[in-house]
Amino acid sequence: MTCTMDELILKLKKEIIDVLNLEDITPEDITDDAPLFGEGLGLDSIDALELIVLMEKNYGIKLKDPSQGRELFRSIRVMADYIQANRTK
Amino acid sequence: MRPLYVSRTACITRQSVSVNGKELPVSSGDGRFLAAVYRTLGIDYPKFFKMDNLSKLGFLASELLLREDRPRFVPREDCAVICFNRSASLDADTLYQATIGPGEDYFPSPSLFVYTLPNIVTAEIAIRNKLYGETSFYICEAFSAHQLFTTVSHAFADSSIRSALAGWTEYGNEVCEAFLMQIETFPPPETALPFSVEFLTRIKNKL
Tell me, what's the ipTM? Predict the structure, then answer.
């Protein structure tokens, strides 16, 4: 459970690529601060729901309000910061 | 009833991929057959990888039919998309069910859930190709050339429909097979064949 921020960011990138079926995208292709939605990885609303499931399943973080995702999923770094501060597993 | 013609056909099984009877070489080294077909066709449509296997199969069959059209993606309201199969979305249903574990392991996957309806395959084809005619999906106990012929023919009773992408798309229980036809009303080129029960029986038997 204890890992550095860089390790967490890399792990998170791999998990996102896997769970969202981002074929042909590697962790190196995802910039830590680039937006995940819109022009970033081009994710959609179903992807957002899948990320909410990922947060709960892998890190024990339950988002009570799905609209929180809009802020949390701004970038990998924002996600990782939130996970580091709130994870229960 | 207007006479109908099959202007193009595409067939996919794990053993062979063909367009108008002409085989396309597909190499699937890593066992991901549908992804191998996608790469062979040189398609650039990342959403493909988010689809369930049934949608991938139907999508690829439609790409085989339409990929050489120029111009492509011209919106059409006179083209229907009509598919049939036996197993509905059972493959996607099973994968979705596997994400719903007991007790605390309850994480139903939203991205799998959206494909737990077989008619999504017709929607994926329609969205990709901007086809705004009827889309429908029929689940049959077994392949029936007569049922397919009758149902597709009835779609053309709507005088606004001049063309249809129609066929059999089955994925599940270790079966992966599809044939898709472009069916049209206008006088066909020399290669077009009359749309008939016999034609459907022949093409299914070749899979």
Answer: 0.85
Of A24, A50, A56, the CB nearest to B110: A50
Nearest residue, CB atoms, A46 vs list B35, B108, B110: B110
The class level of CATH for A5-86 reads mainly alpha
Q: Give the model confidence (pLDDT) of A28-46 as tens digits.
A: 999 999 888 877 777 888 9
Q: List residues of A whose CB lies inside 8 A of any B CB.
A: 19-24, 42, 46-47, 49-50, 53, 56-57
User: Is B46 part of the contact surface with chain A (CB cutoff 8 Å)?
Assistant: yes
CB B21 within 8 Å of CB B10: no
Cβ atoms of B206 and B11 within 8 Å: the answer is yes
pLDDT in tens, B128-149: 999 999 999 999 999 999 999 9
- CATH number for the domain including B112? 3.40.47.10
Distance CA B186, CA B183 (A): 10
What is the Cα–Cα distance from B148 to B146, expressed in whole angstroms? 5
Using a CB-CB distance cutoff of 8 angstroms, which residues of chain A are in contact with residue B48? 23
Residue A69's pLDDT band, with cuts at 50, 70 and 90, is confident
Instruction: Give B35-101 as a DSSP string.
Output: HHHHHHHT---GGGGGS-HHHHHHHHHHHHHHTT-SS-S--BSSEEEEEEESSTTHHHHHHHHHTB-
Residue B41 identity (one-letter amino acid): L
